[in-house]
């Protein structure tokens, strides 16, 4: 959806060369009020050295996008580069990702730059190196992000981020169930982040990384 509005894709399987390559769905360049639902998006293992961004669903400069009841899997970078993900977002507003099954990805969800009013809920995320990754390029934080009622299983970390100290105003991570993960909340925590009412069973660390306890706005 390139600069198009009110388009719904329902019931597609998106694959490249029978799963040998990575297939991508994109909502870009001022697309708005578009939906993909009840669809399967299939990736594959590859090696990029970390410099290339590849994802199953890419939302960039788009608003009011819904990703619903989809299966997104197989987006694996062989050296665990976080730039390969099931979902990636740049400069978005009012995106909702719900009731999806996201698995066998290096990163399940990667809202990378300027994702405002993002909702991630009711998803099952498993067998990923990182379930949800936060980072900012050129200092682009995100505001009013809600991540809740997700089930996260068998991931290296349920929530992680790269270095930096940009604020994420209104970022809340609550009512998630996390188990059999290497880290529950890992790596650098984000200023203004609120984490509460989660059930976390992780080995070895429930809460790990640099300055997590010092800069969380609130935790429970």
Short description:
The protein is mainly beta and 220 residues long.
Outline the secondary-structure elements:
Layout: E1 8-10, E2 13-14, E3 25-28, E4 32-37, E5 40-42, E6 45-46, E7 54-60, E8 63-68, E9 71-73, E10 76-77, E11 84-98, E12 101-103, E13 107-116, E14 119-121, E15 124-126, E16 130-134, E17 146-148, E18 151-153, E19 157-161, E20 172-174, E21 177-185, E22 194-196, E23 199-207, H1 212-215, E24 218-219
Parallel strand pairs: 1-4, 2-5, 3-7, 4-8, 5-9, 6-10, 7-11, 8-11, 9-12, 11-13, 11-14, 12-15, 13-16, 14-17, 15-18, 16-19, 17-20, 18-21, 19-21, 20-22, 21-23, 22-24
Write structural notes for this entry:
There is one protein chain. This protein has one helix at residues 212-215; strands spanning 8-10, 13-14, 25-28, 32-37, 40-42, 45-46, 54-60, 63-68, 71-73, 76-77, 84-98, 101-103, 107-116, 119-121, 124-126, 130-134, 146-148, 151-153, 157-161, 172-174, 177-185, 194-196, 199-207, 218-219. With 220 residues, it is mostly beta strands. It has a 22-stranded parallel sheet that branches. The protein has a two-stranded parallel sheet with strand order 6-10. The longest helix is centred in the C-terminal third of the chain and has 4 residues, at 212-215. It is globular.
